Amino acid sequence: MITVNYFARLRELTGKSEETIESDSMTVQKLLDWAEDTYPGFGKSTVHVAVNEEYALKEDIIQSGDVCAFIPPVSGG
Amino acid sequence: MMKPYEIVETPIEIQKYADYVLHAGAGAVTVFTGNVREWTHGIRTLYLAYEAYIPMAEKKLAQIGAEMEDKWPGVKVAIVHRIGELHISDIAVLIAVSSSHRKAAYEANEYAIERIKEIVPIWKKEIWENGEEWIGAQKKYPEGNGSE
Fold first, then answer.
1. ipTM value of the model?
2. Could you say which residues form the signal peptide (chain A) (predicted)?
3. Can you give the pLDDT at residue B136?
4. B67 min Cα distance to partner chain A (Å)
5. How many domains does chain A contain in total?
């Protein structure tokens, strides 16, 4: 089971801030593909993924128990 | 005891952070505040709503502090970003840097705000009289005819 968090535009698009996905392991790319398929307009090409609070590469493997977050373009400051 | 790298939901007190970085070896302290601006490209902001992925944002602020210490040895740093609803002139972000001589304090301070805008998971939504938009996200312009 993988936990995913949504923020800002993506929280509003999905209507949720957190959910769990039944999967033992998947790549970051796979997670982005899943999000785009599940939530039209997700805009995966502009979204980064953090795994356990650190930016991950698209080929990185997410394991069951990991906490992921979709990071749309940041705008702090 | 205050955290030198933190996300807060209450007004930012400047003095607290300036005091934190000050020490006997410091000959310079720079304090930058980023404040809520009313007008942006001719559009009037009513207020801003910030949100953050708090645990990761605090880690990334600390990472920026470590990068600064690496590039400008001897600097002492505090960075705080506020989230929630912020109104005109409120402080959204504060960066305090001390160094033995002024050049490092100025340079490191500017470096910090540029890095914050690149890597820290914080998001700003602008709320106008006739619309709203997550900044950094896909553009969504206000609908209807504004009176301005």
1. 0.96
2. none
3. 83
4. 16
5. 1
